[in-house]
Specification:
heterodimer; A: mainly alpha; MetI-like fold; two-stranded antiparallel ribbon; about 5% strand; B: alpha/beta; six-stranded mixed sheet; 9 strands; about 35% helix
């Protein structure tokens, strides 16, 4: 027997505390860690750039980026850029996601649609939608419509895939239950299949909307006077790093906001989840 | 309304699961079906309720569906099959929504079945807040809400612990005493069978055939867990099933 600290002896018998070896593997919410990682990274950059260890050519000083953002806000340009971007994001992803959910449900419910559409979706999914932008400009014109179309197509395919997967995962015993009570087809779809698929659809939306933000910038880079993407492109071509990073920061905040919005939606719609 | 099974046979591919099962289910009686695992008793129950089609033979309803019955053949499932996103009340409403009932009628039915299953205080609870026994009570209330002609119960107490099972058996007996219902009750638990069954159908191992039908004529209310007569019936059933169960246990599964 090896000697351990927690071993005691009495009446010639060794008593040892059983070593705890459970625990772990269960993520707990730690609210402030995420924020402090952000802050310490930015602080580190601030120190390094100010000290000149990182040259201003490779990285702007974070506080300069911050002041650029403030200036952008005060001049009113922020909203001039943000408003069209947001409207493109909302309209495009709304069209893409709602069509995606509809098609996903149809694929989930009907074997014929599944056989016909799944290969088609698989064929469209990996196409880099940005590559199609020139084509979209020809089809839909240089104005907003081509941008809506690009974002819509980009969000459509991941939403379809997530939705039909979610429909497939709906508990079959619940559907059998519905049938055993002679519920109508409409009732089964509306009251059992749709709510049952909701968790999967929402986590699919998370991915779709992140893709929407990526495509938004791509679309605006090709032809837009105002918009976050246009702003970043201008800054990039002038090699104005402060403005470039200010634009990127706006996108990041947008991403965090979208994700938080879906989190809120999940909290409201999926209260019933265990 | 009675039910009549006429020479029902079924196989999945090459695997024969049921062979010439003929059975009468009389109105107002509980018929228990017991048998070793894999003998096709759940398949048989799904066929009786029209969730599966037998390859041979017929399942017949004898007589008219009683008046006021919204869903003649109603299941109670082993895993409760409650919608987790609906409250207790919502789960019961689900099966009433497709019928043309006024809000008053719906309300009347819901409060009636909730009080019969002692759930009145849990009306707005979500399934995740309820224990297993409570969930099965909700499923029972939902089944009662459509005023079924025959209740098809697929191991309704198998997912519960033995204490809860004892309590729910008592509830089922009380419900039957108050308003005798017709039921086909599938179980692998012989104790449940002798406590609840007016007649007990013993199936053989796969392919399931009827080996014997054991009648018990003690009134349900007089049966309790320590009755000698029931003990005797239960060991008689076990003698019938023992060898079949051993053989079934040693069979390789065909996947």
């Amino acid at each position: 027997m090896s000697n351990t600290n927690n071993a005691t002896t009495s009446n010639n018998k060794v008593f040892k505390t059983v070593i705890f070896r459970g625990g772990g593997y269960s993520p707990k919410p730690l609210a402030w860690v995420g924020l402090s990682v952000f802050i310490s990274l930015i602080l580190m950059l601030e120190v390094l750039t100010r000290a000149g260890i990182i040259t201003s050519l490779t990285m702007p000083i974070p506080s300069d980026v911050f002041w650029t953002l403030i200036e952008l806000w005060q001049s009113g340009l922020l909203f001039k850029h943000l408003a069209p971007s947001l409207s493109r994001l909302v309209v495009g992803s709304f069209i893409g996601c709602s069509f995606g959910i509809c098609v996903g449900i149809i694929i989930g419910l009907f074997s014929l649609a599944r056989a016909g559409l799944v290969p088609l979706v698989a064929a469209i999914f990996p196409i880099p939608k940005i590559a199609l932008l020139p084509l979209f400009v020809i089809w839909f014109g240089i104005d907003e419509t081509s941008k809506y179309a690009l974002i819509a197509l980009g969000t459509f395919t991941p939403t379809v895939v997530a939705t039909y997967g979610a429909v497939d995962n709906v508990d079959r015993t619940l559907i059998r239950m519905g049938q055993s009570y002679s519920l109508s087809w409409m009732s089964i779809v509306r009251k059992i299949v749709l709510p049952g698929a909701m968790p999967g659809v929402l986590s699919g939306l998370r991915i779709s909307l992140a893709i929407a933000i990526i495509l938004l910038v791509a679309a605006e880079m090709l032809g837009a006077e105002y918009g976050i993407g246009a702003y970043i492109l201008q800054a990039g071509s002038l090699y104005d790093l402060e403005r470039l990073f200010a634009g990127v920061a706006i996108l990041s905040v947008l991403g965090v906001l979208v994700s938080a919005m879906i989190g809120l939606l999940e909290k409201i719609l999926l209260k019933w989840r265990v | 309304m009675d039910l009549k099974l006429d020479n029902v046979s079924h196989s999945y591919g090459d695997l024969e699961v049921l062979q010439n099962v003929s059975l009468d289910i009389p109105e107002g009686k509980i018929v228990c079906i017991v048998g070793p695992s894999g003998c096709g008793k759940s398949t048989l129950l799904r066929m009786i309720g029209g969730l599966e089609q037998p390859q041979k033979g017929k399942i017949l309803q004898v007589g008219d569906v009683p008046k006021g019955c919204l869903n003649a053949l109603t299941y109670v499932f082993q895993d409760f099959a409650l919608l987790p996103w609906r409250t207790v009340e919502g789960n019961i409403k689900l099966v009433l929504e497709d019928h043309r009932l006024t809000a008053g009628q719906v309300e009347e039915i819901i409060s009636d079945v909730l009080s019969r299953t002692k759930l009145s205080d849990f009306r707005t609870a979500l399934p995740k807040q309820l224990s297993g026994g409570m969930k099965q009570r909700v499923a029972l209330a939902r089944a009662l809400a459509v005023n079924p002609a025959v209740m098809l119960m697929d191991e309704p107490l198998s997912a519960l612990d033995s204490q809860t099972r004892e309590l729910l058996m008592g509830d089922l007996v009380a419900l039957w005493e108050r308003a005798p219902f017709t039921s086909v009750y599938v179980t692998h638990n012989l104790n449940e069978a002798v406590r609840l069954g007016h007649s007990i159908v013993v199936l053989s191992r796969r392919p399931g055939r009827i080996r014997e039908i054991v009648e018990i004529d003690i009134p349900l209310a007089d049966r309790n867990s320590s009755s000698i007569n029931l003990e005797r019936k239960q060991s008689q059933l076990w003698q019938l099933m023992r060898d079949e169960a051993i053989a079934a246990d040693q069979e390789l599964l065909i996947v």
